Amino acid sequence: MPQLACASHILVRSESEAKSIKSKLQKGSGFAELAKRHSTCPSKKKGGDLGEFAKGAMVKQFDNAVFAKGSEDKPFLGPIKTKFGYHLIQVLYKT
Question: Which of 24, 32, 40, 91 might form a disulfide with 72, Cβ 3.0–4.6 angstroms?
Fold first, then answer.
């Protein structure tokens, strides 16, 4: 079972905003570009890149989504609700 992952995310305050951004992603907009423009997380400066992190390092809902079987095979996940807001997540790899 994977113990490390590398992911990027876009964090927004509302589900409706997350769904609007999701629609743009589905139409081919770039994940990093949308993260820089819309995310409320400081990682937006790096296109939403969170780098590599261990299982259990993120809040439960985020962690569950990233480490779910097959998550790395999807173009992005979400919206995923956490105490911080709504995330769209791009899993780059898991090891």
Answer: 91
Q: How high does pLDDT run on average in the chain?
A: 97
Q: Which two tokens stand for residue 4?
A: 């490390």
Give just the sign of the alpha carbon dihedral 69, 74, 80, 84.
positive
pTM: 0.95
List of long-range contacts for 57-64, beta carbons under 8 Å, 24+ apart = 59/83, 59/84, 62/9, 62/87, 62/89
CATH of 4-94, one of 3.30.360.10, 3.90.1170.40, 2.30.38.10, 3.10.50.40: 3.10.50.40
Can you read off the two tokens belonging to residue 69?
């079987």
